[in-house]
Amino acid sequence: MTDLSPPEAPSPAAARETAGQAAPLSRPAVARPATVRRVNLALQGGGTHGAFTWGVLERLLEDERLEVDAVSGTSAGAINGTILVQGLAAGGRRGAIAALERLWTDVGHRLAFSPLRNTPIEKAIWGYDLTYSFAYQAFDTLTRVLSPYQFNPFPVEFNPLRQVLQDNLDIERLRQDPKALRLFVSATNVRTGKPRVFSRREMSVEVLLASACLPNIFRAVEIEGEHYWDGGYLGNPALWPLYHERGAPDIVLVQINALLRPELPTTPSDIMNRLNEISFNASLMAEIRAIDFVQRLLDAGRLEQPRYRRIFLHLIEDEERMREFKLSTKLNGDWEFLQRLRRFGREAAERFLAGSLEALGRESTLDIRRFL
C-alpha cells in the first residue's frame, strides 16, 4: 500500500525530542494588559474534527488578555482540554501551545498509516470525504454487522488512541499539580444511562478513552466496575460543572457539530451524519435553554443572587465551513486536513477576539435563538 504519510508530520520520537521547546507562534503575543478576562472553556467532541479546537485554543493562548479558569470537554474536546491544562501547568502559554502541537502531530503521524484513508485517486475525486472509499465502506459495513466484541475478540482491545494518550500525558503530575486548572471530562454510564463527569484528580488514560468511546467501534471502557461510552450522548460538553460560585461567569463554547443543516439528508451516509449531529447536540441545547431560563428569571427579579448567579455564554464556531465535512471525515487523519481544520479554528477564534472580547463579564454574545 502506498505510504501517504505527509512530510510535514514528524514522528512521535522527533516530537518528543522537542518536548521542552515552545512551538513558534505564528504571531507575537500581545503585551500583558492591565485587565485580564477569565473564561471557562467548554469543548465539544467530534473525532479528528477536534483539530478545529486545536486551532481555537492555540489562538486564544496567544492573547494574554484572556486567562482560562476551568475546562469542560468531551471526547476530542476532553483530550484537547486535558493537554491544555497539563501544558499550562508545566510551561505556561507556550508550554500549552507546544503540548497541543505535539499531540496533533502524533495523531497525524499515526493516522497516516490507517487503512481508513483515501488513495491518491480517491482523494482527487472526493477530497477529505472517506464515505465512498473502499476501505471506509468495508469498515462501515463491518461495524453495522458485528459489534466490537465480535470483530475484535482479543483479550486486550487495540485502540490507537491509547498509545497517543500514553505518549502525551503525565497523569500523576496532572492529578497532583496544585497549579493545574479545574478540568471536567464527560462520559456516559452504559448501565444507568446517566452522565459521569470526572474531575482532574480522577483523570486517567481510561477516563479519556471512555469519553471518546464510540460503542459501534470500541468496547465500553470499564472504570471502577462501571462501563462507559462516549460522553457526547449526555454532555457534549457538560456546562454545569463550570457554574462554580467563585469561578469566572463567562463560558466560551467551542462548537464542532453543526446545529443547522438547510438541506434534507437523503443518502444513507447523510442521514447517519445528521442523526450523529442531532444526538451529540441534544444535551447541550437543553442545558443552554436551562441557563437562558434562569437568566431571564434573574432579569425579572424572580430569583435571588448569589444563590443563582449570572452566566454569560459565548460561542466560537465556523458552522458554514464545518458542515461541509461529512461524518466519515471525523476519522480522517490526513495531515493536510488536520492543518486546514486548525486554520479554521484559528480564524474562528480571531473573530471571537475581535467581536466579543469586550462583552466578557458583562453580557452573553451567544445567539440563544439558535438553540431554541
Give an overview in words.
This protein is of the alpha/beta class and 372 residues long. Helices cover 42% and strands 13% of the residues. It contains twelve helices and eight strands. It has helices at residues 12-17, 50-62, 76-111, 120-126, 134-145, 148-151, 160-168, 171-176, 205-211, 268-299, 319-322, 335-356, and strands at residues 37-43, 66-74, 182-189, 195-199, 221-223, 226-230, 250-254, 312-316. Strands 1, 2, 3, 4, 5, 6, 7 and 8 form an eight-stranded mixed β-sheet that branches. The longest helix has 36 residues, at 76-111. The chain is globular and about 60 Å long. The model is unreliable at 1-31 (pLDDT under 50).
* E-strand count: 8
Biggest sheet, open or closed, and with what strands and sense? 8 strands, mixed
State the helix count: 12
The helix/strand class is alpha/beta
| Span of the ends, CA to CA | 49 Å
pLDDT averaged over residues: 88
